[in-house]
Specification:
The chain has helices at about 30-45, 60-70, 85-95, 110-125, 140-155, 160-165, 170-180, 255-270, 295-310, 315-330, 340-350, 380-385, 400-405, 405-415, and strands at about 20-25, 45-55, 75-80, 130-135, 160, 195-200, 200-205, 235-240, 245-250, 250-255, 275-280, 285-290, 355-365, 365-375. The chain is of the alpha/beta class. The strands form three sheets. The chain has a five-stranded parallel sheet, sandwiched between helices. The protein has a five-stranded antiparallel sheet with strand order 10-9-8-13-14. β2, α2 and β3 (about 75-80) form a beta-alpha-beta unit. Bound molecules: arginine.
Length: about 425
């Protein structure tokens, strides 16, 4: 134990430095967690086991990360490919719930964290660790999602969050890295954007993004083609759903991970899924994020449209409120809250009917629904038609309906017309 670890502990699940013997570190290979890997060994005189989780973040070389961890003294480094579990158990419920927080953020990070933390618990137990360490700061939502998960699933495990306590800024971290022979990816000259990504999307924070008057600079878009550079030809894609699950893209049946990746590819090409988002974090701060969410822009649009087609007016009135509640719980780090499972049961029930195919036209950044087909559509072209409806819909019944439907409103209007207090 050193001075910098001797912090006041406010929560029951925070580790007492004297008890930290073996730490499971959630390791990304970046500057923070690489410095952390050395720092934990030095400051706590503890052993470190690393865990790196593949959720489909593009361009990652896991062999390099593993090698780096070992060279920095990790006892073991586990790399877990959790793409399938992420897609099926986390992204799929989000699709069924049309999940967008704050009207624009499809929750890719918020969905990934409870899975990463659950895997950390499993690996910590298996490797005989007493503590889990992560690289989140004290200002974000991710610390909440990870620590709430660990505290819920593994009351016997403690956590440490060195970035919250070690009082090193970027400059000090770089100095520490140089001093301890820790290689710095991509050089140390310009501070990079703060990036998080997985197969459901990518976020950038920091630098000019913090200046609300600063319009996005081109170099922030590493995934999606800038709309002005996207093809001049529009492209129409079809997405087929079975019971709320996307199962085919352009008529080709695909397993979910591949379907998400292929949908992202076509969206990227057409500049689809750029979101410049002002967001209310649960820790009180308001921040700006630049999101690139090509797959979500296409699949959520398609799912929502199909769901609306097969739902009744009453389901379609109620569902968005519940969707919003679902998104808020997940955003707020309460993945394991029973209400989420309750809501999922409802989402699954509604989605039993959500089968069919939606066609979407992609063009220079926009996604527009152009065709719909479902055996379960609560739609009858003959009834809806302006031409003769064959006697199934009686227009002569309409006046009676209108009289009763408007009864209370008409009465109230008359009462108010008499003036306040009658
Ligand atoms: N604002 C988003 C969220 O709270 C994205 C956070 C990205 N995380 C990160 N460590 N850069 O879910």
């Amino acid at each position: 134990m050193t001075d910098s670890t001797a912090q006041l502990r406010t929560a029951s699940y925070e580790a007492d430095p004297a008890d930290v013997r073996r730490v499971l570190l959630l390791y990304s290979g970046g500057l923070d967690t690489s410095v952390m890997l050395k720092w934990i060994q030095d400051s706590y005189e503890a052993e470190v086991v690393c865990l790196t989780v593949n959720l489909g973040q593009p361009g990652e070389d896991y062999a390099v990360i593993e090698d780096k961890a070992k060279r920095l003294g990790a006892l073991e480094c586990h790399v877990v490919d959790a793409r399938r579990e992420f897609a099926e158990e986390y992204v799929l419920p989000a699709i069924k719930a049309n999940a967008l927080y704050g009207g624009g953020y499809p929750l890719f990070t918020a969905l990934g964290r409870p899975l990463i933390a659950k895997l950390a618990v499993e690996h910590a137990r298996r490797a005989g660790c007493d503590t889990i360490a992560h690289g989140c700061t004290g200002k974000g939502n991710d610390q909440v999602r990870i620590e709430a998960t660990v505290a819920t699933l593994a009351p016997e495990l403690k956590t440490i969050a060195p970035v919250r306590s070690w009082q090193m800024g970027r400059e000090e971290e770089i100095a520490y890295a140089r001093e301890h022979d820790i290689p710095i990816k991509g050089g140390a000259e310009v501070a990079p954007y703060s990036i998080d990504d997985n197969l459901w999307g990518r976020s950038s924070e920091g630098r000019w993004i913090e200046d609300l008057e600063h319009a996005p600079e081109d170099d922030v878009f590493q995934l999606v083609t800038r709309p002005e550079e996207a093809p001049d030809q529009a492209e129409t894609v079809t997405v087929e759903f079975e019971r709320g699950v996307p199962v085919a893209l352009n008529g080709e049946r695909l397993e979910l991970v591949e379907l998400l990746e292929r949908t992202a590819e076509v969206g990227c090409r057409h500049g689809v899924g750029i979101v410049d988002h002002i967001e209310d974090r649960i820790v009180g701060l308001k921040v700006r994020d630049i999101y690139e969410v090509p797959a979500a822009a296409i699949l959520l649009t398609a799912h929502q449209e199909l769901e609306k087609l097969v739902g009744t007016i009453h389901q379609n009135q109620a569902k968005p409120d519940l969707d919003r509640q679902w998104a808020y719980l997940v955003y707020a780090g309460l993945w394991w809250e029973p209400l989420r499972a309750d809501l999922d049961a409802l989402m699954d029930s509604v989605n039993v009917q959500v089968s069919g195919t939606i066609g979407l036209k992609l063009f220079k950044g926009s996604v527009r629904v152009v065709t719909r087909r479902s055996p379960n559509a609560v739609y009858d072209a003959d009834l809806a038609s302006f031409t003769e409806s064959g006697g199934l819909f009686s227009q002569t019944a309409s006046p009676g309906f209108i009289e009763l439907w408007s009864l209370q409103s008409r009465m109230a209007h008359r009462i108010r017309a008499r003036g306040v207090g009658g």
